[in-house]
Amino acid sequence: MVCATALVAFIISRVIVRLERKFSQTKNLWDDAFLHALRMPAVGFVWLQGVYWAANIAKRYSDAEIFKVNDTVLKIGIIWLMVWTLWRFVKQAESILASPAKMRRPMDYTTVMAVSKLARAVVVITAALVIMETLGYSISGVLAFGGIGGIAIGFAAKDLLANFFGGLMVYLDRPFKVGDWIRSPDQEIEGTVEHIGWRLTTIRTFDKRPLYVPNAVFTSISVENPSRMTNRRIYETIGIRYLDVAEISAIVHDIREMLENHEEIDSDQTLIVNFAQFNHSSLDIMVYTFTKTVEWVKYHAIKQDVLLQISEIIGSYGAEVAFPTRTLHLADPVRLDREADAKRPRDDSHDDESQERPDYREADSLSDYDEDGKADRTTYGDVDS
């Protein structure tokens, strides 16, 4: 029996392989997917049926309890093989629908992945209910118990359910998909989306660290998707010296003409080049334009070229880019030396008072003064000299 089962399984496998090769030459992709999904479960069915027949033969010669459940095992095995076939077919369909090589207009990978997960969940839940019915359990009772237990589970796992429904909203609204660069102005979330699960979304930050964000977060924050931008913006303020005010009109004209003729600047978008304001130490020119590319590296190369050409235009008029400067106005300096003080005319009204005042400028301590309060000439010499 075992040898016969192995032979039949080998034949079935070879037949399905030949059919796969034949159907691969057609334009229909779904027959290839179905045959590929069916091959392994078909071989499994042959082995399951072989074991069932062998068990029935053995049952005639033995009363072991294990042989009494042959029919139940066969039914559960067939259900499991059907689930396996559908599971494999869903995986094949997922790869077909999201493949640009197989579809003219491939579906969004995030949507395909969401539908695939939902279909597999339906298959598994349905199979579980059918198996329980096969084993003799009442499905209505199970569903009633599930309704009561679901309330308790809902309160206990509210965060888990919030993440689940948050992931469902991401799948339905599709604010981003796998491979998009996203950022949030509300939180420090920025990077490339790697995976969108039912509970967590995996984001790879620009320093190559994985960031795991619960899906419930996306229901309460704003999310930017720079991957879907149509252009990149160049917005700069160029300062010119006040000495070059006579040339500013010509400089503005040449910069605008250069941008309009630049092959990497999208002239269909807003383009502004204007003298903007009198700043503290410069005459400011606003440059506002958009590039055709959205690629990050190429954008910076274009921006560098634009800025260098602006610098050349400014230099061609003998003007210069301004830098912060200040002009300090000082009053006439005041001389504080003694000779200047001595040459000034003295006020006679204070002569008597000045003569009686001790000359403390020439003495270092009180011990150097005589009884009248005047400096001791024997110690310091002639003070008038």
TrEMBL record:
<keyword id="KW-1003">Cell membrane</keyword>
<dbReference type="InterPro" id="IPR010920">
    <property type="entry name" value="LSM_dom_sf"/>
</dbReference>
<feature type="domain" description="Mechanosensitive ion channel transmembrane helices 2/3">
    <location>
        <begin position="117"/>
        <end position="158"/>
    </location>
</feature>
<dbReference type="Pfam" id="PF00924">
    <property type="entry name" value="MS_channel_2nd"/>
</dbReference>
<dbReference type="InterPro" id="IPR023408">
    <property type="entry name" value="MscS_beta-dom_sf"/>
</dbReference>
<keyword id="KW-1133">Transmembrane helix</keyword>
<dbReference type="Pfam" id="PF21088">
    <property type="entry name" value="MS_channel_1st"/>
</dbReference>
<dbReference type="InterPro" id="IPR011014">
    <property type="entry name" value="MscS_channel_TM-2"/>
</dbReference>
<protein>
    <submittedName>
        <fullName>Mechanosensitive ion channel family protein</fullName>
    </submittedName>
</protein>
<feature type="transmembrane region" description="Helical">
    <location>
        <begin position="137"/>
        <end position="157"/>
    </location>
</feature>
<feature type="compositionally biased region" description="Basic and acidic residues">
    <location>
        <begin position="337"/>
        <end position="349"/>
    </location>
</feature>
<dbReference type="InterPro" id="IPR006686">
    <property type="entry name" value="MscS_channel_CS"/>
</dbReference>
<keyword id="KW-0472">Membrane</keyword>
<dbReference type="InterPro" id="IPR006685">
    <property type="entry name" value="MscS_channel_2nd"/>
</dbReference>
<dbReference type="Pfam" id="PF21082">
    <property type="entry name" value="MS_channel_3rd"/>
</dbReference>
<dbReference type="InterPro" id="IPR011066">
    <property type="entry name" value="MscS_channel_C_sf"/>
</dbReference>
<feature type="transmembrane region" description="Helical">
    <location>
        <begin position="72"/>
        <end position="90"/>
    </location>
</feature>
<dbReference type="InterPro" id="IPR045042">
    <property type="entry name" value="YnaI-like"/>
</dbReference>
<feature type="domain" description="Mechanosensitive ion channel MscS C-terminal">
    <location>
        <begin position="244"/>
        <end position="320"/>
    </location>
</feature>
<feature type="domain" description="Mechanosensitive ion channel MscS">
    <location>
        <begin position="159"/>
        <end position="228"/>
    </location>
</feature>
<feature type="compositionally biased region" description="Basic and acidic residues">
    <location>
        <begin position="355"/>
        <end position="364"/>
    </location>
</feature>
<dbReference type="InterPro" id="IPR049142">
    <property type="entry name" value="MS_channel_1st"/>
</dbReference>
<feature type="region of interest" description="Disordered">
    <location>
        <begin position="337"/>
        <end position="385"/>
    </location>
</feature>
<keyword id="KW-0812">Transmembrane</keyword>
<comment type="similarity">
    <text>Belongs to the MscS (TC 1.A.23) family.</text>
</comment>
<dbReference type="InterPro" id="IPR049278">
    <property type="entry name" value="MS_channel_C"/>
</dbReference>
<feature type="transmembrane region" description="Helical">
    <location>
        <begin position="111"/>
        <end position="131"/>
    </location>
</feature>
